[in-house]
Write a structure and sequence with these properties.
The chain is mainly alpha-helical. It has helices spanning about 1-15, 20-45, 50-75. The longest helix is centred in the last third of the chain and has 28 residues, at about 50-75.
C-alpha cells in the first residue's frame, strides 16, 4: 500500500511539470490501452479485461483534467 501511495505521489508531481506534448503522448497511450482492453472484453469475452478497461478510463480522466490545466496555463502566457 505504501508503494502505491508513493507511486501516486510521484505521478502527481510528474504531471505538474509536464509539457503538453508529453501529456498528449500519455493520453494517447492510455487510450490505446483502453481500446485493447475493451476489445478483449467485448470481442473475445475476456472478463478480466473489464476492470483493466475501467482503470484505463480513470487514468484518461486524470490526464484530460491535467491537459485542461496545462492548456489554460499555456493560453495565459
Amino acid at each position: 500500500m505504501r508503494y502505491l501511495s508513493s507511486k501516486l505521489l510521484f505521478l502527481r508531481l510528474n504531471l505538474t511539470s509536464i509539457s503538453m506534448k508529453d501529456l498528449l503522448v500519455k493520453i494517447n497511450a492510455e487510450i490505446d490501452a483502453f481500446k485493447a482492453e475493451a476489445e478483449s472484453l467485448t470481442e473475445k469475452g475476456i472478463k478480466a479485461a473489464g476492470p483493466r478497461a475501467r482503470k484505463a478510463t480513470l487514468e484518461i480522466e486524470k490526464l484530460l483534467k491535467e491537459f485542461r490545466k496545462v492548456s489554460i496555463e499555456e493560453s495565459k502566457k
